[in-house]
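Severity: low
Component: inverse-folding endpoint
Summary: output formatting inconsistent between runs
Steps to reproduce: submit the following structure tokens with default settings.
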């Protein structure tokens, strides 16, 4: 089973609010459709917020830790993400992919400590019935904080762990995790190996940057890859493009 994340910065123009990168999304959808036609089974897709979710969350001051109790703000953020989700679904459906939405706002929540609880039974059942579940960065109810952002990376981690994924792929705007010379780091087995390059997990948007991704992926049993859009087809074919993250 594969959990694939399409980064929000890949499929949207992150510098322009609520603007799709249509060409990039078409390429990603082509790669997914080709992989499924080639025999790939049990694929779960997660996509980030890009200029849809991040723009609206920033406007309302909502992050993974800072919440809102304003229903209008919540609807702005969630509505932007469902709009982007429909774009993703439509491109996949046009190519014969049996893609269906799973909206985290209606499924998950955070406890008072901020830990994410995400039921995955519906995702497992959809997979068993031949669907391709498509989740997305969203809001979730947060005890004591109203509603906060849940990032695509958090969803990937939860899904991969609960569904016992065999492989995890993060399709990014960069060809992998880069060192100080902008060369791709081939393999990461411990965060300490790249801490000097990535630094602390300081947020570069409302959900965190590359450091947070690497730290989260190192907690998983399954091997993960971070790669650029040009390597998506290769990843789905079973290759290990970009940076491989494996703590085992």
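Observed output (run 2 of 3):
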């Amino acid at each position: 089973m594969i959990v694939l994340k399409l980064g929000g910065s890949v499929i949207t123009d992150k510098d322009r609010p609520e603007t799709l990168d249509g060409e990039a999304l078409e390429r990603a959808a082509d790669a997914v459709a080709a992989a499924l036609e080639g025999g790939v089974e049990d694929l779960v897709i997660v996509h980030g917020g890009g200029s849809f979710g991040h723009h609206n969350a920033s406007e309302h001051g909502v992050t993974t830790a800072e919440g809102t109790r304003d229903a209008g703000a919540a609807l702005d953020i969630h509505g932007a993400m469902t709009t982007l989700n429909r774009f993703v679904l439509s491109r996949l459906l046009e190519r014969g992919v049996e893609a269906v939405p799973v909206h985290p706002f209606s499924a998950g929540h955070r406890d008072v400590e901020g830990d994410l609880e995400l039921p995955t039974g519906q995702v497992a059942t959809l997979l068993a019935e031949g669907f391709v579940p498509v989740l997305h960065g969203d809001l979730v109810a947060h005890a004591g904080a109203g509603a906060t952002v849940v990032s695509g990376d958090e969803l990937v981690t939860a899904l991969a762990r609960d569904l016992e994924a065999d492989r995890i792929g993060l399709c990014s705007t960069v060809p992998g995790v880069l060192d100080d010379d902008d060369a791709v780091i081939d393999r990461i087995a411990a965060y300490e190996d790249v801490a000097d390059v990535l630094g602390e997990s300081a947020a570069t948007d409302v959900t965190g940057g590359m450091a947070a991704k690497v730290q989260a992926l190192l907690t998983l049993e399954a091997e993960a890859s971070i790669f650029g859009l040009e390597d998506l087809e290769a990843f789905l074919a079973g290759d290990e493009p970009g940076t491989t993250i494996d703590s085992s």
